[in-house]
Specification:
The structure holds 2 protein chains of 2 kinds.
Chain A lengths: L2 H7 L7 E7 L2 E6 L3 E6 L4 E2 L8 E5 L2 E6 L17 E7 L2 E7 L1 E6 L4 E4 L13 E5 L2 E5 L2 H10 L4
Parallel strand pairs in A: 2-12, 6-8
Antiparallel strand pairs in A: 1-2, 1-9, 3-7, 4-5, 5-6, 7-8, 10-11, 11-12
Chain B lengths: L3 E10 L2 E6 L3 E5 L6 E2 L9 E5 L2 E6 L1 H17 L8 E7 L8 E7 L4 E6 L17 E7 L3 E6 L1 H6 L10
Parallel strand pairs in B: 6-8
Antiparallel strand pairs in B: 1-2, 1-9, 3-7, 4-5, 5-6, 7-8, 10-11
The chains are: A mainly beta, B mainly beta.
Chain lengths: 156, 167
């Protein structure tokens, strides 16, 4: 079975473009068409108290959680100064954000994408696939996986 | 009447040995290859490599079988970074007629090829206790004692049982 067919079996389809989100140097790929908008981190309101996310983004006169993940995808309680941009994603209940150092667009045609091997799957993982890009292996996620991951409320 | 077959004996490090069938070892990468960390995977399978334009999961059976015990021991002895690791590329198939799939397996030295007779069949080692979920059989080797024969398809094609996962 081809990698594309296997991806389809897992409900994934390779998009025309990915964005590579940099998190403490770790690059996480997300389909570009899943990004609702980008916000500068300066516009993110830091959280106060013991929240599971690191900040709030305001959109449509409502506040939405912004998560900040480390290189090993553990939730951080505050947004470090190295994070300069926030990607906002729409999902069933509204929106949520992810604070990143850098966001770069990559062509889907520049990479091969494979489903995450069965032996690498864990119940909480937000990783859905692996991609080869410029002789490197990058992790691929999607907004549904990230939303479920945020609901898991996993802190460092 | 006995049956003979050929197997590859693999040194997995930490005193662990295992075997795979003659045609289950597809290739050996004779140096430490580029391994890429994948977050939120089990500790024993948190790396991937590129082989023949595919991404393969890399399994560390020492970590799977000995886990924390080994990590503590290595930390005490200052062992780890200086050990050269090879990667064996193993082949398996989950359905008859399907093209083989591949996975990487960390090893300490180039595998040795042995002839195995069914008269060498023996029980799996009692320690470490994880062997029954990873091996399909075992044989007695004159040099290294009992050598479990890996169930390669099960190792790579099944989702880890929650009890075996440490992140």
């Amino acid at each position: 079975m081809s990698a594309e067919l296997e991806l389809a079996e897992h409900g994934l389809r390779k998009p025309a473009h990915f964005v590579a989100l940099t998190l403490d140097g770790f690059r996480l790929l997300l389909p570009q068409n899943e990004i609702h908008r980008l916000e500068p981190v300066e516009d993110i309101e830091p959280v106060e108290g013991d929240e599971t996310h690191a900040g709030w983004a305001t959109l449509n006169e409502k506040r939405w959680p912004v998560y900040c993940l480390s290189a090993n995808l553990r939730a951080m309680a505050a947004i470090p100064t190295s994070r300069r941009i926030c990607v906002l994603l729409e999902h069933a209940d509204g929106y949520f954000g992810l604070a990143c150092e850098e966001v770069v667009i990559l062509k889907g045609t520049q990479m091969r994408v494979f489903p995450l091997p069965a032996c690498m799957r864990t119940p909480g993982t937000p990783i859905r696939a692996l991609a080869i890009h410029q002789e490197r292996v990058l992790s691929v996620t999607c907004k549904a996986a990230l939303a479920a991951f945020g609901d898991g409320r996993t802190h460092a | 009447m006995t049956t003979d077959c050929t197997a590859w004996v693999l040194n997995l490090g930490d005193g662990l040995w295992a075997a795979v069938g003659e045609f289950e070892l597809a290739h050996v990468i004779p140096y430490s290859p580029g391994l890429f960390e994948i977050p939120w995977c089990p500790l024993y399978c948190r790396q991937a490599l590129i082989w023949e334009d595919e991404v393969l999961p890399v399994v560390d059976l020492g970590e799977r079988l000995l886990g924390e015990v080994t990590r503590r021991g290595k930390a005490r002895a200052g062992v780890g970074a200086e050990i050269e690791t090879l990667v064996g590329i193993v082949a398996y198939s989950t359905r008859p007629g399907d093209a083989p799939k591949h996975g990487g397996l960390l090893m300490r030295e180039v595998p040795s090829r042995v002839r195995v007779s069914d008269r060498q069949a023996c029980a799996l080692p009692e320690h470490p206790e994880g062997w029954p979920s990873l091996a399909i059989a075992c044989f007695e080797d004159a040099r290294n004692g009992p050598i479990p024969i890996l169930d390669v398809a099960r190792l790579y094609a099944s989702t880890p049982a929650p009890a075996s996962i440490s992140l």
